[in-house]
Design brief:
Length: 122
Amino acid sequence: VHTHSTFATAFAAVGRPIPVYLTAIADEFGCPVPCGGYARIGGEEIGKEILRAIGDAQAILMKKHGVFTIGKGPLQALKAAVMTEDVARTVWHALQIGQPDELDPEEVAANHDRYTHRYGQK
């Protein structure tokens, strides 16, 4: 899924990833939302940069462009796009108040494991 959602694209405009400041980011993504470098649209360059920079993330911000998300299917990719905008909006507001602390990597892993394997699972 590709979007130019307002808050996530604002992070992309300045080339900033979205760090794991919130349990919601840890739960959903298990890592920061990375920001890839600038790549010209209309050819293979942007796809190559997405593949280079996305790592294990489900979402990536592309510098000076917007948001790209992936998933096991279209609904999972759409959910990742919605969650990317949601956490970007909250993080942007938090940054207006002060500088949030990132969650410890162990907490990120524990939250992501709980969310993906036990929370709401049938």
